[in-house]
What we know:
Shape of chain A: globular
Order of helices and strands of chain B: EEEEEEEEEEE
Oligomer: heterodimer
Distance between the termini of chain B: 41 Å
Order of helices and strands of chain A: EEEEEEEEEEE
Low-confidence stretches of chain B: none
Helix content of chain A: under 10%
Radius of gyration of chain A: 13 Å
Amino acid sequence: xxxxxxxxxxxxxxxxxxVFLECVQDMDHENMFWYRQDPGLGLxxxxxxxxxxxxxxxxxxEGYSVSxxxxxxxxxxxxxxxxxxxxxxxxxxxxxxxxxxxxxFFGPGTRLTVL
Amino acid sequence: xxQVTQSPEALRLQEGESSSLNCSYTVSGLRGLFWYRQDPGKGPxxxxxxYSAGEEKEKxxxxxxxxxxxxxxHITAPKPEDSATYLCAVSGYSTLTFGKxxxxxxxP
Lengths: 115, 108
């Protein structure tokens, strides 16, 4: 079974802090994704990566950056956390083409609260 | 721009009362339609992939069908443990586009 793990289930940070969210997958998938999920807004794509050291902006990249130094690991960075970044963050991975046709497998999520 | 609309937003059923959830979509060149189940506070769990109109997939009490404009998730004789939010997503020439989900509550 595909396993996607995220470094924390719950995280509380203060405004202005630098925040790292880490994601690891064990299925040798080429593609990895970061989403945030908010009530009424659904899942929104922040960034994705289709190869090591490659990254592409999603629908809402502002205020975030990412890093993919190894194939199995994809990190989301909040350079200076703000209260409007309080959300559930979900990591996913998939094989095949990032552009489509492949199901994504999700991690358990990180509930981030920024005070 | 790819779009996905799910209806109803919420559905309450009695145990054993069968029903269907709808996912309407517009996409440039459908490469796949996906159904997920999400429990509160957890990540989405993959259920099905459908690739072409007329295709059907089944898993326990769930059956997903696909036409050129919509997909249905049929739930037969649901149980309380089927209570969850069900998400639909489509893949065209870009990454997945998700609907906002249908929250299903099955009462004993």
